[in-house]
Amino acid sequence: MEALHAATIQVLTQQGLARCTTTRIAARAGASVGSLYQYYPNRDALLAAVLARKLSGVSAAVDLACRAQQGQPIAQMAVALTRAFLAAKLHNPDESKALYAVAAQRGGAALIAQAQASMVVSIATMLASAADVHVANPAVTAEVALNTLVGSVRALLEGLMSPEVAATLETQLGALLTAYFQTHAVARAAASALARE
Amino acid sequence: MEALHAATIQVLTQQGLARCTTTRIAARAGASVGSLYQYYPNRDALLAAVLARKLSGVSAAVDLACRAQQGQPIAQMAVALTRAFLAAKLHNPDESKALYAVAAQRGGAALIAQAQASMVVSIATMLASAADVHVANPAVTAEVALNTLVGSVRALLEGLMSPEVAATLETQLGALLTAYFQTHAVARAAASALARE
Amino acid sequence: MEALHAATIQVLTQQGLARCTTTRIAARAGASVGSLYQYYPNRDALLAAVLARKLSGVSAAVDLACRAQQGQPIAQMAVALTRAFLAAKLHNPDESKALYAVAAQRGGAALIAQAQASMVVSIATMLASAADVHVANPAVTAEVALNTLVGSVRALLEGLMSPEVAATLETQLGALLTAYFQTHAVARAAASALARE
Amino acid sequence: MEALHAATIQVLTQQGLARCTTTRIAARAGASVGSLYQYYPNRDALLAAVLARKLSGVSAAVDLACRAQQGQPIAQMAVALTRAFLAAKLHNPDESKALYAVAAQRGGAALIAQAQASMVVSIATMLASAADVHVANPAVTAEVALNTLVGSVRALLEGLMSPEVAATLETQLGALLTAYFQTHAVARAAASALARE
DNA sequence: CATGAATGAGTCTTCATTCAT
DNA sequence: GATGAATGAAGACTCATTCAT
């Protein structure tokens, strides 16, 4: 039920994972515990479903952004990817943060892995289409880039980031990824030349 | 007690945070619950102590490496920092992974924040001393770099990293940071020239 | 739940406050601990509720008796008050005795204070209406009288009273209060005379 | 040991009976738990000893006062008894209050009973020697009087007494007892006349 | 004799899950 | 299908008591 999803996120953000009990979720959703168990076999399944939905939303947003950048210059890709990822994760920071706690539970890792894999494919595909450079190993580059973005987002969500960095995060990460992408890339012209040899 | 520290890490890695109860820790340590409470006022304090010890170890390792790189070229700094951080975190991967769960607990964030701050200072100081380039804003650069390293390490520890990336992680991150550091830097010669004008 | 009230009193009388645990109460009530906590937020709340019910019963009985004595001679008031209070407290001696232990707990004092205050008002109002005498300070006199009654009842309940006294308690206390009330009173006629001067 | 007595009372008054643990008592006394158990077989024995000492002090004070009033008029006896009892109980109110909690424990009732019996004898003996009146049944009268005093003292210690009453307690109780004693008494002259008939 | 670390039974309290209505 | 009272296992924590040093 939709109400259960929303209620779970509310309880999660307002009370934390430890106090996110089935009774509280049901009460917040205006339903009974019994009803909750008609939609989900147990508490973990509900939490997993909520996490999965959030993750697929982020994946979709990243995928959309990557498709839109097909054939663009690599620097623009870096900026667009950063912007899309930050927007998806920071649109509702409390929710994102709360769900990281859920992800740490047994079973959460698999969902995260799936979402990451999907995003890596999207990013790698985008990188391979760059107009100006040829990325040697798009999958590897995409994965490292994604981990970098995730690292900063977690730091921000967990309150570990200084105001200075937080204020310019998008710029910093855009620059970082641009520099990184170019390190692993070979200019198209040179690549063509190489191929001709 | 030392046995309690070890037991906590064992239970944490083998059973997870949720099943890491005072009873189980005590049993694993070959002690009684009562004894546990003679050394720590409550469960959270024990977990915090274990986390704090690990974090200070990592901080110290990073600090040591940064001091050793004073005055070196920036590319070498990037590689040395990466190597030191990965070595410290991956020396005992199970322990590191288990403690990430603890860090998410109430109180864990403060310890992490403290350790991060300490490492940012070490890294920033090192960057400021680079022989070849002048880093514009060492503190910000250091913080972004640290978050990047953390992001990859978490991905690795949580099993989210592909074998391809894992195999070349140190190289990848070294290159990434080198590129990033140079983005934010101005060649010493140019900087001196600017200063003279 | 009614069964929890009854069970609490039974455990209290048979095992004492120290052994009056939530588990034992629940078992005696034929319920589970969980059920207990669906009716009361914690152990103290249950004990307080049991005490409060008893106290309000005593208060009500005293109030009823006092109202019935409005306008009667003071000696009759003393006897009626004594009779009503003893009847209320000694109707179920085990329960009364057990609850004195509860009253000593944190939070019990407030309930007792409230009940005492209510009874003092009832008694004072009665005293002020005495047909034959004018009580100078009804509130003070009522309070001292109540403490006197309580003192004897506690002695009786705690087994500190000799059989001789116990056998004639009502008579003794009636006489004591009659004598005390008259000490603090002025005959109506004299009072009127004084007022006319 | 003397220090243990003092420490017990301090912990009792400052932390309450529930937090009056053997460890805390020993620490307060500057001793070890082990030492405590060399003087007392268990916690209850220590508490009982502390209570017993306090009670015998009160008994002795009352006895002393009663002996001093031998052969005096009954009104003076009432006042002296009241004064002595209040002084003994209210000299250290916190201690007295804390010990009432101890008295409610298993075993405390017997000690109280013993002290009460002793005081009843002292008071009865005094009453029998009154110069002006002949008390019909000194033991019964003494017991009722004592319970009355105890009732007010408990009310005062437990904070149940209004400031108005507390301010004039000694006067009120003196008057009450005087009135009560005279109710149960026959003037010496009349008594002698009766005896001659 | 003194010490105080170790013990572990016993408390209160929570919460996922069930099932009679 | 919905409900929510009942369950009871499990967790954190306390403390009287013991005993090796």
Task: Explain how this protein is built.
- Chains A, B, C, D: InterPro entries: Homeodomain-like_sf (IPR009057), HTH-type_TetR-like_transc_reg (IPR050109), HTH_TetR (IPR001647), TetR_C_15 (IPR041669).
- Four copies of one chain form a homotetramer.
- Chain A has 197 residues and is mainly alpha-helical.
- In chain A, 78% of the residues lie in helices and 3% in strands.
- Chain A folds into two domains: 1-41, Arc Repressor Mutant, subunit A (Orthogonal Bundle), CATH 1.10.10; 50-196, Tetracycline Repressor, domain 2.
- The first copy, chain A, contains eleven helices and two strands.
- Chain A starts with a helix and ends with a helix.
- At the A-B interface, helix 7, helix 8 and helix 10 of A face helix 7, helix 8 and helix 10 of B.
- The first copy, chain A, binds a DNA duplex (21 and 21 nucleotides) through residues 21-23, 26, 31-35, 37-38, 42-43.
CATH class of the largest domain in chain A: Mainly Alpha
- Unreliable stretches of chain A (pLDDT < 50, length at least 5) are none
Q: Could you state the oligomeric state of the chains shown?
A: homotetramer
Radius of gyration of chain A: 20 Å
The major pleated sheet of chain A works out as: 2 strands, antiparallel
Helix content class of chain A: over 70%
Count of discrete domains of chain A: 2
Give the structural class of chain A.
mainly alpha
State the total count of DSSP E strands of chain A: 2
Question: How would you sum up the global shape of chain A?
Answer: elongated
Domain HTH tetR-type (chains A, B, C, D): 1-58
Protein name (chains A, B, C, D): Transcriptional regulator, TetR family
GO molecular function (chains A, B, C, D): DNA-binding transcription factor activity; transcription cis-regulatory region binding
Organism (chains A, B, C, D): Orrella dioscoreae
